[in-house]
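Task 17 of the worksheet. Students: predict the tertiary structure of the chain below and write it out as structure tokens. Keep your answer in the requested format; marks are given for formatting as well as content.
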Amino acid sequence: MPRHLTRAALTALPIIAAGLAPVLATAPSYAAAEAQTSTSGGAVFVQTDDLGHNSVVSFRRDADGHLHRVGEFLTGGRGGVEQNVPLDSLASQDSLTFDREHHLLFAVNAGSNTVTSFRVAGAHLTRLQTVRSGGVFPVSLSAGHDRLFVLNAGGSGNVTGYRISPTGRLAALPGGSQDLGLANAARPDFITAPADVVQTADGDHVIVTTKANNTIDVFTLRQGGLSAPVKNPAASAVPFALSFDSHGRLAVANAGDSSVSSYRLRADGTLQTITAGTQDGQQALCWLVGTGDTFFGGNAGSSSISAFSIAGDGTVSLTGTPDGVVAHTGGGTGGTIDLAITPDQEFLYAENAFAGTVEAYHIQDDHTLQLVDTAAGLPQFDGHGMEGLVAF
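Model answer:
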């Protein structure tokens, strides 16, 4: 896809919203890897989403945030690309996710309708298992509470759950699949596909954003499996990425007006809006990651990162700079997509679709970002490219 068309598609997001509104390596021992990780800083993983042979590129992360490429590990599946994507093949957040409890990395294979799990040892991966995703065109994953939930974007869309065993193997969760009631093709259009799936900290709910439907769907986990979704109307257009603040309130990035909303989740699955949407004046804020009460949003159309703060009462405001913009990725032409923050909340990593890079930023006390390193040589977007980013 020509690059000028992709930028046009990003610019048109608010208009669209209004119209739709109402390889494999042998891993070192776990103990040795943990010792290596603690002294070197950690690891960063990038999913290539290659259409022929999907893979995960791994980097060793120094204590100062610098990245050193370690290897590339095949998933055994194929990547995928949604229709009419502007710069992000899967148009989603969390297509790659890390389960710290089981030390597993999970990756979607959108072109194969499968999910692959890897055993993680430092920056090395050992492929463990590949299972059917439970639907068509998986785009997002959420691991926690000994469960993995997969968001499938194709066709009517669904959420499918798996139990993670003590050995890291996946088994279907009884009653753990629910339909989203969408009307997508098997390879969905980027604006009509759902974008993100997360589990709440208590494990009682699973939440999904549906983008063009402008809903935030909440499923309750019961003894018999997942309930039917409570479809909450989003307070702002094109809800995309999901995160939580330190009080368990929901923070949502909205691509339509480049804003962040906040909600209080009730036990019955309904949402109470706190802030309808604090806009950052950028284009297509899609990705959102947080450090408790400070959140960073990736503006795909502006190649920038904005900072937001959530106050004690749950209201959202810009922070870091007067306009909230704390970084211009790839020199302002990177095409900001996935973001990831290290567990110690010291570093933020940004994936740049057009530049084919991952940038490392040190998070300053005033919520601004200082660039410390750039890892190049990753797939650049030209109608298709990488998507999925994990840092630990």
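Marker's comment: Residues 1-8, 15-39 have pLDDT under 50 and may be disordered. Residues 234-379 form a domain with the Methylamine Dehydrogenase; Chain H fold (CATH 2.130.10.10).
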